[in-house]
Write a structure and sequence with these properties.
By secondary structure, this protein is α/β, with parallel strands linked by helices. The chain contains 18 helices and 15 strands. It has helices at about 25-30, 40-55, 70-75, 80-90, 95-100, 135-140, 140-150, 215-225, 240-245, 270-285, 300-310, 330, 335-345, 360-365, 380-385, 395-405, 420-435, 445; strands at about 5-10, 60, 110-115, 125-130, 160, 180, 190-195, 235-240, 255-260, 260-265, 290-295, 315, 325-330, 350-355, 375-380. A 3-stranded mixed sheet has the order 2-1-15. Helix 4 (about 80-90) crosses helix 5 and helix 16 packs antiparallel against helix 17 (about 420-435).
């Protein structure tokens, strides 16, 4: 039976803004308070989805969240009508209003961790929504994320859904941004690679000194247990604390993997040789041939990697066995990174081609091509069981671009977030979107 890696890209929401909310994310903080363009952001993301679909890759779309999150503001003590809640928050606690308006759910690499049926004990595809409890503005996402994923992957015969881990520091979970899967074929058993920044309970593991390590070893282990993964099919690795302190807040900012290949920076991990040997041995037991591409610091520094998002790229397997790397325009703008990529593709190695996409709106908030997609490996039967409304097609692309043109603003500043009309615009847009994507009632305003 044929199997696929399906990329479900996050659709940028109507309240996309530069709030500078993510401490440790250099791009997010450096562009704080600039005016954003939600319409352009959404159209840039849709253009990438369409392009990958036209290249022959399986492509889906994942809906954004309701923002501002008035319910979250009510839990923090703001009362009255929805308009009054927004007015009071803007007057008394503008940072909380900005957080409640964040469109960060577009980075669906953080939505969940996904294990395909070939790896799990019960033979189903397992999803665990990420608690994202390191940042308040992201910690409020997982209830809606769970409902949206449940509406997309509803068939219990094929799909299993788990609630987010306990929302405490010891179980900080950032989803697929710290998770990669290696395999010979998407439908065969593989090795799931969990990368953590610190241990909550074991002091033998060093921790970064400047920026927080968002993923804990204990969270990764809990997800592996929930998904019924075997010890032979899991490898845990620690992210280098020094690169976290340089702005590498997730592993997908310093490494990316797919199929049998890991593409990583020389400084990405601790105990790299031991980790590579374990991946090689365990993938070998699955019939795979593990291969790695190390980018030396002498050619690309960590700073270059962070500023260009070289590793926050999509590494895609083509039918001829070669690999395609999808990178943001910022890679072409960095002389050292672009020179490295030119040499990489001309060497006749594993990665044969690089394609560049303009994702400036997302990039300025600290997320590139890999942040925008959640990878789900599915066999033909499972793909047929996915809600067909969320699978990208040419007609759906046309419908969604018209939807964006109709509902999105082309400029949004911090002051605009205090406009109660923005909430009404968002709800109207999302109500229509749930009908387009055939999701049913997934948003609080549709349920309550």
């Amino acid at each position: 039976m044929k199997s696929y890696e399906v990329n479900f890209d996050g659709l940028v929401g109507p309240t996309h803004n530069y709030g500078g909310l993510s401490y440790g994310n250099v791009a997010s903080q450096s562009n704080s308070q600039q005016s954003s363009n939600p319409k352009e952001a959404a159209l840039q993301g849709l253009a990438k989805m369409k392009a990958l679909m036209e290249m022959g890759f399986q492509q889906g779309v994942l809906a954004p969240q309701e923002r501002p999150d008035v319910a979250a503001l009510r839990r923090l003590g703001f009362a009255g009508s929805d308009a009054q809640v927004i007015e009071h928050a803007a007057k008394d606690a503008m940072p909380l209003l900005v957080a409640s308006c964040s469109a960060s759910s577009m980075w669906v690499a953080n939505a969940a961790t996904v294990s395909p049926s070939a790896d799990t004990a019960d033979g189903r595809v397992h999803f665990t929504a990420a608690n994202l409890n390191c940042k308040y503005h992201r910690s409020i996402e997982h209830p809606t994320t769970s409902r949206v994923l449940g509406a997309m992957f509803a068939d219990q015969q094929h799909f299993a859904h788990h609630a987010a881990l306990p929302a405490v520091a010891q179980f900080g979970d950032e989803g697929a941004a710290n998770h990669t899967r290696f395999c010979r074929d998407y439908g065969q058993a593989g090795v799931e690679f969990f990368v953590f920044g610190r241990s909550a309970f074991d002091t033998r593991y060093p921790a970064p000194q400047k920026y927080p390590a968002r993923q804990t070893l204990e969270a990764s282990q809990a997800v592996a247990r929930l998904h019924g993964l075997s010890d032979d099919g899991v490898v845990y690795a620690q992210q280098n604390p020094s690169v976290i302190d340089q702005g590498v807040f997730h592993n997908d900012v310093i490494a990316v993997g797919n199929g049998e290949v890991l593409f990583y920076h020389e400084d990405a991990f601790l105990e790299t040789d031991k980790m590579l040997a374990e991946l090689d041995a365990k993938l070998g037991k699955c019939g795979g041939n593990f291969q790695s591409i190390c980018v030396p610091r002498s050619q690309v520094t960590v700073e270059d990697a962070v500023r260009s998002y070289l590793f926050n790229s999509q590494l895609l397997s083509r039918t001829d066995g070669s690999m395609l790397l999808i990178v943001p325009e910022e890679c072409r703008g960095n002389e050292r990174v672009w020179q490295y990529l030119q040499g990489l593709t001309s060497s006749g190695g594993l990665i044969r081609e690089v394609k560049v996409f303009d994702l400036k709106q997302s990039m300025q908030n600290g997320g590139g091509p890999a942040c925008l997609r959640l990878r789900v490996a599915l066999n033909q039967t499972e793909l047929a069981a996915v809600n067909p409304g969320v699978i990208m097609t040419a007609p759906l692309y046309g419908t969604l671009t018209q939807w964006v043109d109709k509902h999105y603003r082309d400029r949004l500043s911090e002051n605009d977030l205090a406009d109660p009309q923005l909430l009404l615009e968002c709800r109207t847009a999302l109500d229509e979107l749930t009908q387009i994507l055939k999701l049913g009632a997934v948003y609080p305003f549709q349920i309550n």
